[in-house]
User: What shape does this take?
Amino acid sequence: MRNLALHWQILIGMIAGCCIGLALNMAASERSVKITSDLPAGIVEAEVNDSSSRTVIRYRHEQQETIVTVDPSSRSKDGIRTYKQLAQQDPLASQIYNQHGKSIAKQVGGWCQKIGGLFLRMLQMVSVPLIITSLLSGILSLSGRQGVGKMFKRTLSYYLTTSLLAILTGLLLVNLIRPGLQTTNSLPTGAPSIDETHQTSLIDVIFAQIEAAIPSNPLAAITQPNFLSIIAFTIIFGVFAVRTGGTTAARIHDLTNAGLDVMMAITTAIIRLAPIGVFFLITAVLATQGSSVFKSLGWYVLTVATALLIHACITLPLILKFIAKRQPLEYARAMSPALLTAFSSASSNGTLPVTLTSVEQRAGVSNRTGSFVLPLGATINMDGTALYEAVAVLFIAQLHYGYNLPLSQQIIVAITALLASIGAAGIPHAGLVMMVIILQAVGLPLEMQGIILAVDRVLDMARTSVNVWSDSCGCAVVEALDSQAPQPMNANEPAS
Ligand code: ASP
Assistant: This one.
């Protein structure tokens, strides 16, 4: 097993989790009990009917009979959809259910969720230091280079434009296809109903994001953690370190690179545990919800894949044709070694040497442009990741709330998805690690990531190819825009 490539191990963990979870769900998800002893004070008798689709709790308290239903698919505003809501709204019913009424499938599912949750905690543990070191290292690699001001602005404009276009494509498709609403089941985790969380106007929402981008206390932002503030401060710090230049910038660069190496090593080690994490999380989901969950995941994969295809095969080629004046098909053929390496490795950073040589030797872009645009792009330009983040979070929200997030929340998702993609390291599953930023921004429970973990590898391969394709197109665009400007003396050093 240890000699197998990680994605095969994850697949095995996923299949094993599916089989065990489904078997548990089929064999032990029904439970009907009448309870007459060991009940909370004042309750003389109670009855619980538990199944994977809903739970009904009936109890008699001081001559008064109460019936409570937990129904994950409830569309009613006052309906109880989760056990967390049950605990808040009717603590007595919740206590009876937890003590006497849980089916075996739900009990085992709960333990598996706890164990799988440890894996998610590890991912959360590395996210802050990984973002800081990855982002700083990308920005500081610009330090000491001549004549980069204009090129930097053009590169940044290209990165921001294409990432935003990618996010818009993702949002459009997830609103059209509504993958999380294609099944009646939602997940058994709880959060306040969305109506309680955003009564504010759009202006307030956007202003809150701008405020978060100016942290009054950057260290507090790290401990909270507030990812928006962390990314904003890291960019400011990096840009001013580059402007300070000299040995200061060099020392910070060395330190950051050393930190990044260690963080990459830790993250890679954690990712090695993914097969076990996936196993427990998938078992938990299937044991509690049964096979209907597959329908949702299928729609989710379809939504991400279609949106990625539209971005890679329509949006970027149009930019390539009309701004860079290149033939998209020819350019794609020249970049094919890099795109295939990206697909199989799921790592923009790992693919970087292949991308550099393909851009320079096969697509005819100068070393000056390639060596500037690509390393920065591998760190901060991730169209595929940005698109995926937006779709995944809206999908999770659809599953969790049972309806689509309103526009104001979708704008927060778009802004934070952009920042998350900028902060994501170019390594496998980095996008998944960064998703906490967006989930946190719209108040969704972080553990709901568990549901999409199972299909993350295959989507990671696809989005990494799109990330690398966008970086490569960026080289042609920046080169075309740069060609009118006078070139510095060392403009055409030999390709490395
Ligand atoms: N694996 C992606 C990359 O290296 C990042 C991600 O997980 O989205 O570009």
Remarks:
- The chain has two domains: 30-102, 127-275+288-484.
